[in-house]
Amino acid sequence: MKSKLIDWPTFIGALFLILAVSIPLMLFPDSGAVIVDMANNFMTEKFGALYLLVGLAAFFFLLFVAFSKNGNVKLGNKHEKKEFGTISWAAMLFAAGIGSSILYWAMIEWAYYYQGPPFGITPESKEAISWSTSYGIFHWGPLAWAIYTLPALPIAYFYYVRKTPVLKISEAVRPVLGNKIDGPLGVIIDVLFMFGLMGGAGTTLALGTPMIAEGIHDITGIPITLGLKTIIMLLCTTIFAISAYSGLRRGIKFLSDINLWLALFLLVFVVVLGPTVFISRTTFTSIGIILDNFFSMATWLEPFGDLAGFKKTGFPESWTIFYWAWWVVYAPFVGLFVARISRGRTIREMILGTMIYGTIGSVLFFGILGNFGLYLQLTGNLDVIGFMNEHGAPAAIIAILHELPLAQLIVPIFTILAIIFLATTFDSSSYILASVVQKEVQSEPLRWNRLFWAFTLCLLPLVLMFLGDLETLQTASIVAGFPVIFIMLLLAWSFIKASNDDIRASKDYESPVIYIDQKNTKKSYERYD
Ligand code: NM2
């Protein structure tokens, strides 16, 4: 019986938690928004240091693992080839982990920093401009990608090395929590992860939908109404539901490949036909600024903000902390996904690949798209900031694109790319949500199950949009991310514990690629049972 494959407590638990949060928000949108706001402020102000610590800790932990013996371990059998070539692998990784938000923020993040810079710098000064081109890259840079990679370690390890056919977060913490994860504790861990991912997805949809609506409005002249936004959400859901339904190799890989080519086209177009020299010089300089200030950027919490009459900017709460929370909620999902596509690679390849390709991708988007907008601002061709303050960020994004040659072509391409970027994040999310509510995943989770989560991911933001507005959802990641921080800790610990045990027992301890024979893992595995 197929329904026996479903892990009903997790399935129902996740659904229940989502409804328990959404229904009150739907019924009382105004007080709901106030409460969400309070919860956000509470989390970011009281636990800011904890969120920032996650970024730094994940980064150093991964570097340590990559260059230790643990990094030599091969994910899979001894002579197994890589399941996906490196380009497809990097494209899928980027397409899954990054959604339409990169188009949104790469285009416009600088404009916020320009007006509201960190470190007490005068807004709109030359210094503020330098920071404005660097901070976006930092928020999508190596620390952020490290947050994404960490959960992939234990998950890939248990799936391909110990060959446990379960794609679940709870399974990946078995070495630390032992049998307890077979009871309610395991269900709680999986449900909290699913809840986090849905919060992150809510943030993504809440930002992506207005931008896509603006693009469609620009192309067709259809006014931006609730109806248009609803159609957009439904259209995106249909695309990603079909993709998730067709599975990993056909649907998800196919969309990721188109995504890659379209994105490359857009980037090359802007670099070549835009201010090439300005873009390259500014991007290069930003990398230097980030390297020079890496630790200050990673730890700045504005501790004297409102003391001694200083003016608090709220920059850390609105940006770095919010961002880390947003990466955290997506991280176990990206981990599950990266793990799933990394068969045949070593742990080191997986870690360095994710951090390096991921960061390069972010640098390209922010460097090219962001600096193009900045160029328009500085040369006076378009007052992006004035426009944004008056008409909002999505309209400013489209206005920037209009400054390119062949804008009639570029706006549709940008809009389609945004839809595909959204779809490639959501198809893999529903694929993973479906995997987590199954007791076992041999090759792919059940089809109806994938479809179910595809629609659930979109349904709630849709209803919330009708009743309130999307703004409440934009910061959903912060609250939903809090419990996930602790799950991240368990994941790291669990990986080290299990892989150290196995490596010690392995015959090719000294070789550059360590293949772990499952027979040797048995003993250590049994200890946890
Ligand atoms: N992250 C990368 O909306 C999206 O692009 C999905 C967002 C966590 C900031 C991920």
TrEMBL record:
This is BCCT family betaine/carnitine transporter. NCBIfam families: bcct (TIGR00842). InterPro entries: BCCT_CS, BCCT_transptr. Belongs to the BCCT transporter (TC 2.A.15) family. It is a multi-pass membrane protein. It comes from the Bacteria. It is found in: Cell membrane. Keywords: Cell membrane, Membrane, Transmembrane, Transmembrane helix, Transport. Its main location: membrane. The keyword Cell wall biogenesis/degradation does not apply. The chain crosses the membrane at residues 7-28, 48-67, 87-108, 137-160, 181-206, 226-248, 260-279, 321-339, 351-376, 396-423, 451-468, 474-496. It comes from Virgibacillus alimentarius.
